[in-house]
Design a protein that fits this description.
Elements lengths: L4 E3 L9 H19 L4 H18 L7 H27 L8 E6 L6 H12 L3 E7 L2 E6 L6 H15 L2 E3 L10
Antiparallel strand pairs: 1-5, 2-4, 3-4
Helix pairs in contact: 1-2, 3-5, 4-5
């Protein structure tokens, strides 16, 4: 864990019945939505399997409901902006393209937090996460003239809030070049 992150809530290695129940209800609701409320003879075993797997694979951090509630509207707007930006560039060939790679030093702890950040960066306008190398995120961008560091600096605290973490302010703006 980074010295610049402070965990707010961690789960124990052995999940309790409340964690089982929360995830079971979450996956059951997801199955209900996706299946239209039917097919439980097929869905029930998969809901149980998904619950068990999620508890085995994701025990590092707990999602913060407040962080999720703040993140989702922002993410929806950014996803639409990203899609429209790429569509405009595809339909209007005269729009400038300056593709390239940008490296940004991360403050988030390794693991699910950084992977989540990398996945969300891919949904932002004209970007694609290319690699996570040590403490750096490598981003492929369609326009290297845009301030990618500011974009990632804006996103990092949002991702941290999803997991109940608080990030200290960066020592200097701009990250790694």
């Amino acid at each position: 864990m980074n010295a610049s992150t402070m965990p707010a809530a961690r789960t124990s290695r052995i999940p309790g019945w409340q964690a089982w129940l929360r995830r079971l209800l979450l996956f059951a609701a997801l199955w209900w939505v996706l299946s239209g409320g039917g097919g439980w003879y097929v869905g029930a075993p998969f809901v149980l399997l998904a619950t068990w797997l999620s508890l085995q694979l994701w025990t590092e951090y707990r999602l913060s409901l407040r962080g999720v509630a703040r993140f989702l509207p922002w993410f929806a707007v950014q996803s639409l902006a990203g899609a429209s930006d790429v569509a405009r560039r595809a339909l209007l060939p005269r729009m400038p393209l300056q593709p390239g790679l940008v490296r940004h030093r991360l403050r988030l702890p390794a693991g699910v937090c950084r992977v989540s950040l990398a996945n969300v960066v891919t949904m932002l306008p004209g970007t694609l996460s290319a690699d996570l190398v040590d403490d750096e995120l490598v981003v492929h961008t369609l326009d290297t003239g845009r301030d990618m560091h500011a974009m990632v600096l804006d996103l990092e605290p949002r991702i941290a809030a999803l997991f109940g973490l608080a990030l200290e302010q960066p020592a200097q703006a701009g990250g790694a070049a």
